[in-house]
Amino acid sequence: MFNDFLPMPDRPVYIQVKDYMKRLMIKGALQPHQKLPSTRELGELLQVSRNTVIAAYAALEEDGFTYTQQGKGSFVAATSVMSAEPSWRIGWQERLSDQALQAEELDLMKHGIRSQKGTISFTSIAPDEKLFDLGNVKRAFLDRMAMEGHVLLNYGYAKGYKPLMDYLLHYMEHKGVDLTGKDILITNGFTEGFDIVLSALGKRSGRVLCENPTHNTAIKNLRLHGFDITGIPMEQDGVNLQELERALAEQRFDCAYLVPSYHNPTGIVMSVQKRLELVRLMGEYRVPIIEDGFNEELRYTASHVSPLIAAAGSGNGVIYIGSFSKVLFPGLRVGWVLADAELVGYLESIKRARTIHTSTLDQSTLYQYIHNGNLEKYLRRARAEYKRKYELTLRCCREHIPYAELTGHGGLHLFVVFAQGFDTRRLLERCQLQGVIFTPGDIFYTDGGGRHTMRIGFSRVADEEIELGIRVIGEQARVLLQEQG
Description:
Blueprint: H1 13-27, H2 39-46, H3 50-62, E1 66-69, E2 73-76, H4 92-95, H5 98-105, H6 108-111, E3 120-121, H7 134-152, H8 162-173, E4 182-187, H9 189-200, E5 207-212, H10 216-224, E6 228-235, E7 238-239, H11 241-250, E8 255-258, H12 272-284, E9 289-292, H13 308-311, E10 318-323, E11 335-340, H14 341-355, H15 360-371, H16 374-400, E12 405-407, E13 413-417, H17 424-433, E14 436-437, E15 439-440, E16 453-457, H18 463-484
Helix pairs in contact: 1-3, 2-3, 7-15, 9-10, 9-14, 16-18, 17-18
């Protein structure tokens, strides 16, 4: 006993000794009322100082694991050790809900593409961490902690951190949004906001409209909430309005989920005219819109286009979900829902029941970072770098890949469409053997289609790897086309 203690250099040694002794007591190696070695003796056994052991024993007694008898030493407390009951097991597979089983089945992190070390991966559309403005993030955190650290470390409000809420309301107003009758809720990124909104919507028909293809995370959450999905095909300037109107005329829908700017996965930006007509059409059929703001700030060539919620004016039929995850730092899990004030009141109650509130530390750090004037500077730098990578990737795709169609007006990815009958799953298998992977497009389709499509995420890929990886994709694609004949 006491010969397997291995201290780590990055943690106070007395805490490591305390935890080590606790483990021995819990496992039964040290029994109730057993006398512990003297502080000097244990120090020699563990090769630590006597003062370290004294501090560890004091902490053990404070935690209720030991007690002291004057003049006799320290002893193991009776309540610190529980005798194990005979082991018993449950077959959890039989106890799981349909939602849990479906979530596991749809989990791409478990069942998707595996990236081996050294692989050139075009699967991610996360920001490049090399661009992260660490110095100013640290400064923002320290600034806010110095001002109100005692408040930030306590419980916050379900609705959000007020300085950040006020900033985001102005931010949305500058996008052309009429804030009359609207309110805001801070969430743990887009996904929680989307989940809360779906939870609040009553199922009158159980059907939802969206673009086809669309954001895989949205498809997954819609299915987990039990909605049937009707996908509407895309055109070069956004969703096909004729097909949309046909679907609206044929069936009732509870809502529509749309990504009008730098659409995931196609990268298409919906035209202004189409936005206005879409909002009018959805109003005519009384179908609320859930608008995904995604990465509106990452525009490289076209002028700013106002979101759908701006096109709705003072109307309350659009629910906007925003996030800076693709622009700033996804590790700060902060998103927001801007919607009708009455609806936000219900969303706030759902939020409070589920997660109490979004991390006030995250919210306040983000607010202070923006308040310090860093967002605009960071965006200029990020846009310049991503635009450069976007143009490089675009040039490489045009040079090497025998595509039928290539889309992507901005953002962090391009969408490649091959001729019908081409199979990007087979292409992925061949490219993976060559050390290159990408995201096959069928995961974004609502109807099982898209086997002839793929998404190329370039944000975290080095220039030389972009050129090499796309050359490999193009070479393997040409081989497959020749085999098809």
